[in-house]
Amino acid sequence: MTPAAVPEAVPVLQPAPAGAPVTQDLHTIPRRLPEGGRPNLVGMTREAMRAALIAAGTPERQAKMRANQLWQWVYHWGVRDFDAMTNLAKDYRALLAGHFDIALPQIVTRQLSDDGTRKYLVRIEGGHEVEVVYIPESDRGTLCISSQVGCTLNCSFCHTGTQKLVRNLTTAEIVGQIMLVRDDLGEWPVPGAPKVETRLLSNIVLMGMGEPLYNFESVRDAMLIAMDGEGIALSRRRITLSTSGVVPEIHRAATEIGCQLAVSLHATTDAVRDVLVPINRKWNIQTLLDTIRDYPRLSNSERVTFEYVMLDGVNDSDEDARRLVRLIRGIPAKINLIPFNEWPGAPYRRSPPARIQAFADIVYKAGYASPIRTPRGEDIMAACGQLKSASERARRARPAVAAPLA
Ligand code: SAH
Ligand code: SF4
User: In 27, 82, 129, 204, which residue has its Cα 20 to 30 A from 324's Cα atom?
Assistant: First the structure.
C-alpha cells in the first residue's frame, strides 16, 4: 500500500502546494461526541449495550440479539444512521434514534506530511484536544492513538510529559479515534463486498499521548472492541500497547487484553533511567524486566518490544548496548531504536546516525532484531514524543470559538 492508494473519496487530503500552510480545517464535519444528552453507543461494551437497550424498553429476552445486531452496525460496518440498520424493524429504529447517539470525537484539523503521514487534531468533550497519527507504509497502515490528554509521568525527553495530565480518555474517545480515521480513509467494509486483504488501517499502536496503563479499563474496553471479530476485527497481533513500565498493570494487560507489548526501556542503568523515565524510581529496571519475562506466556504473544530512544552521549554507548543485551537475556524480544525527535527547548540531542548504527549492530549480533525507526511526519511534528507542541500551537493560533461543536 502506498499513500497513492488512499481512496479518492478523501478530497481534502491532497498534499499542500509548496509554501502553503498544510493544516486543513475540517470544522464543518458534523461528527461529535454529545455534550450530555443521550447515551452514546460508541464506547459501549456488549454487556453495556444490552443493559442500555433494556433500559430503553427492549424486552429482556431480545436484548442480547439486538445488542449483537447493533454492535455489528456500529463497530463493524461503521453505520451512524439508525435508518440504515435494515435488519431492525422501522419502529425499533425510531425507538433507538430517540434514545441513543452514535457519535465520534470531532476532527478539528488534519495535516498531511510530505511522507504521507497524517496527523489529526481531534476535539473531545470539554474542549480538550488529542492528536492521532496515521502512518502509511508499503504493507500496512499504522494508527498511533492517545489514551490520555497529557500525562502524569514526566519523562525528561518527551514533550507530552511536559504537559500536565488533563484527564483520561473514555472508551468512546479511544475507540472513536480508530473509527474516525476509518471514516476518513473511507474503509468501512461494505455488506456483500469481498473482504479486503490489506487494510489501509491495519495496525494500532498506543503510542500517542498518555500512559495507557494508567487508564486501564477504558483502554482495555476500547482494544477489545478493536479486536472483536464482529467489531473492528483487527488481530491482537496488530495492536501494540506501549508502557513506560507500570509494573502492577502489566499482568492485567497480558490476561485481560492480550495485545502486543512495547516497553519504554531507554536506559540500561537505574541511575540514567531514573532521570529519563522517572517511574523507574518506583519500579526499577530489574523489577520491570522480571514482570515482562512472563508477558509472552501470559498473553500468548511471541515477543515483547523494547523501545530505546537514542540520546546523544546519554544512553548510546557501546557499553550501553552490551549491557542492554545482558539485561534482557532470556526474554524473547526485539529492540526498536528510536532516533530522538527534538522539540523546542528539549534538553537532549539525537545521537548521530553512525552511533545509532553501531549500537544497533551490537544488539543485532547478540541475536535481537534491532530496527532503527525512521522518524515519520517530522515536518508536521507528528513523530513520537512531539505530540504536545502541535496542539498547543494550533490552540494559540485559533480563537477558542473558531470550532463550534454543532
Ligand atoms: N506513555 C507510553 C506511550 C506513549 S509514548 C510510553 O511511554 O511508552 C510512545 C513512545 O515514544 C515511548 O517509547 C516514548 O518513550 C517515546 N518518545 C517519547 N518522546 C520521544 C521523543 N522526543 N523522541 C523519540 N521517542 C519519544
Ligand atoms: Fe508519558 Fe510516555 Fe511521554 Fe513518559 S514517554 S511522559 S509515559 S507519554
Answer: 204
Residue 111: CB partners within 8 Å, gap ≥ 6?
Answer: 22, 23, 24, 118, 119, 120, 121, 380, 382, 390
Q: Supply the range of the domain harboring residue 295.
A: 106-402
pLDDT in tens, the chain (406 residues): 333 332 222 222 233 333 333 333 332 233 344 455 799 999 999 999 999 999 999 999 999 999 999 999 999 999 999 999 999 999 999 999 999 999 999 999 999 999 999 999 999 988 899 999 999 999 999 999 999 999 999 999 998 878 888 899 999 999 999 999 999 999 999 888 887 778 999 999 999 999 999 999 999 999 999 999 999 999 999 999 999 999 999 999 999 999 999 999 999 999 999 999 999 999 999 999 999 999 988 898 889 999 999 999 999 999 999 999 999 999 999 999 999 999 889 999 999 999 999 999 999 999 999 999 987 877 777 665 565 534 444 444 433 222 222 2
Q: Assess whether 151 carries a catalytic annotation.
A: no
CATH number at residue 200: 3.20.20.70
Task: Tell me, yes or no, whether 17 lies in a domain.
Answer: no
Rounded CA-CA distance 40/42 in Å is 5
Ligand 1 centre distance from Cα of residue 242 (Å): 8
94 and 228, same domain (yes or no): no
- Kindly report the CATH number assigned to the domain that includes residue 45: 1.10.150.530
Q: Is 215 in the pocket of ligand 1 (CB under 6 A)?
A: no
Residue 388 lies in a domain: yes
